[in-house]
Amino acid sequence: MKKVYMTVLALASLTGFAQTTTCNTVVINDTEEQNGTFISGQQGQRAAADIPITAGQEIIISQIKVTLASKEVPTYINFRFYDNILGVPEDPEVASSYVPNETLFDVTNTTVGEFEVLAYDEMHDFYIRNITVNLAEPIHLNGDDVEDRYWMGVLSDANAWASTAHYLTGEGVVGESLAMGAGEWFQLTNLEQVYELTAECNFLGTSEFSKRLVSLSPNPATDVINISLPDGIGVKNTSVYTVAGQLVHETAGDAQQIDVAPLAKGVYVVKVAAANNAVYNNKFIKN
Questions:
Q1: What is the pTM of this model?
Q2: Concatenated DSSP letters for the chain?
Q3: What residues contact 28, with CB distance under 8 A and at least 6 apart?
Q4: What is the distance between the alpha carbons of residues 131 and 142, in angstroms, rounded to a whole number?
Q5: What residues does each domain of the chain span?
Q6: Is 27 exposed, middle or buried (0-12, 13-18, 19+ CB in 10 A)?
Q7: Cα–Cα distance between 228 and 173 in angstroms, integer?
Q8: In what order do the strands lie in the sheet with 257-259?
Q9: I need a labelling partner for 35 at 20 to 30 A (CA). Which of 107, 144, 177, 229 fits?
């Protein structure tokens, strides 16, 4: 394949507490070896790149670019976000590494935007394109909902997701290496996926907002969840969001229960506006 200069966008390491700020850093990786990871749908081979995040941090993604390979321009490009887990390698002499865990949510309300053809792969009759994916609404990643990182996979009718070797220079490394799997996940330790995020970071820090937790039981839940605020504080209204930030349920008044039966299985965030004008929040799992 013709040498291509690929761009990997990393999340900058920010410290301290700040207002919403851009958290993008472009890193160019110019090693000689570019490759790709085949992706074949939800039941076939999958690939994922990790997005590091810290507790108390929110990442709001407004646009995603990915470099994909296929003969025709993909008709759809969606994204799947996974939880994080420390994998157990089959070989006990191999160090453990982080890999995707359970699916948290899918982002399907997207459109394929502008693209740039980077190269042509004669062996597979693929064009390699850097494609802008437009999001109907921003993706909200909350650092309190995962341990250290999210994993992002691509669901598309493209054939492969481009990757770039970083072991020669160490450049372009964003957290962990790419993860791949058809059944169990494992890392390809010398490769990183090629992607670009346009995002803003909001650090909640140690504010009272991020410290206030509403008690939810049972958790996980199937039918209803009981709400309990400290010291008998009254409830003004309750909202339930997906971890992607989509409002799925809202109740006005001093409700002590939430009907979660209609919700799909997954992880949700409850925000309770209390009578003392404070906001309490917590997450729960819907079985």
A1: 0.64
A2: -----EEEEEEP---S--SSEE-EEEEEE--S-EEEEE---SSS-EEEEEEE--TTEEEEEEEEEEEEEESSPPS-EEEEEEEEEE---SSTTSPP-EEEEEEEEEE--EEEEEEEEEEEETTTTEEEEEEEEEEEEEEEEETTSSSSEEEEEEEESSSEEEEEE-TTT-TT--SSPPEEESSS-EE-TTEEE-EEEEEEEEE-TT-HHHH-B-EEESSSBSSEEEEE-GGG--EEEEEEEETTS-EEEEEESS--EEE-TTSPSEEEEEEEEETTS-EEEEEEEE-
A3: 5, 7, 171, 172
A4: 26
A5: 6-203, 212-286
A6: middle
A7: 44
A8: 215-217, 224-228, 257-259
A9: 107
Fold held by 212-286:
Immunoglobulin-like (2.60.40)
Rounded CA gap, 108 and 233, in Å? 39
> pLDDT in tens for each of the 287 residues of the chain?
222 322 333 322 222 222 334 454 334 343 445 677 888 766 678 899 888 887 777 888 889 999 999 999 999 999 999 999 887 766 666 667 788 998 999 999 999 999 999 888 888 899 999 999 999 988 988 887 888 889 999 999 999 998 876 544 444 445 677 888 887 888 876 677 888 888 887 765 434 444 467 888 998 889 999 988 877 788 888 888 876 667 888 888 777 888 999 998 887 888 888 877 777 878 888 88
